[in-house]
Amino acid sequence: MHLPLADCLPAHPPIPHGHIGIYKQPQPGRNYIGAVVTVGRMTPKQMWRLADVAQNYGSGTVRLTVWQNLIIPDVPDAFVETVKKNLVKMGFHYEATSIAGGLVACTGNVGCKWSSTNTKAQGVELARYLEKKVKLDHPINIHLTGCPNSCAQHYIGDIGLLGAKVSQHGNQVEGYHVLLGGQCVGGQALGREVFHGIPFEELPPLLEIVLKTYLTRRKDRHETFVQFPGRHSVKELQELFSE
Predict the structure, then answer these.
(1) Residues 218 and 108 in one domain
(2) Could you tell me which residue, 55 or 101, shows the higher pLDDT?
(3) Which domain holds residue 127?
(4) Per-residue confidence band for 43, with pLDDT thresholds at 50, 70 and 90
(5) Rounded to an integer, what distance in angstroms lies between the CA atom of residue 157 and that of residue 190?
(6) Are residues 161 and 234 in the same domain?
(7) Domain match, 143 and 224 both
(8) pTM for the predicted model, two decimal places
């Protein structure tokens, strides 16, 4: 018999990045391990290896999170290090940066006719760029969705990106409308569109400016990214990010 996930997890404040890392369960000597699956992409080989790890060192179950990451529950203390090594070997990570752990992307135009953009590949490229340029002390969620159907729920991401075809030098290219301030953990808020029709190649440096402006202009180090745009109008935010 397997306990519901709520019975396996200890009571603590919501974790914005979906329980990534190693955490004690209420059951003595048991742990759950959260691993990052970048933009939810997993190969068949990784699936088989993951199933073996869960069967051999856990209770044979794997839980999936809304951030496209995964949890292996019921890992005994003695097997924690073994599971960690196996996760890294198969290409997953049990520690996340403040950006990669909260990266969510829909199927994108590689697999969906409605999508205007290649969300998964562009999401990975965006995260790698930002991780090199910005050091955050609070995790953020970035949601990329390729069309208004919003399978990746761009409107509740700290940074929400809605894919669109945009004009650049007379050509139609892949780009995004940028929403800021969405929230679904620790409160509820819908993101507001701050930038419209940004070509993807211009998006990484733009978001670098957004995040660095937040770090330098926030009230104090305890102010989260969601709180920062929440106390400014859209016009004020546009002016701040243009300085």
Answers:
(1) yes
(2) 55
(3) 100-242
(4) very high
(5) 8
(6) yes
(7) yes
(8) 0.83
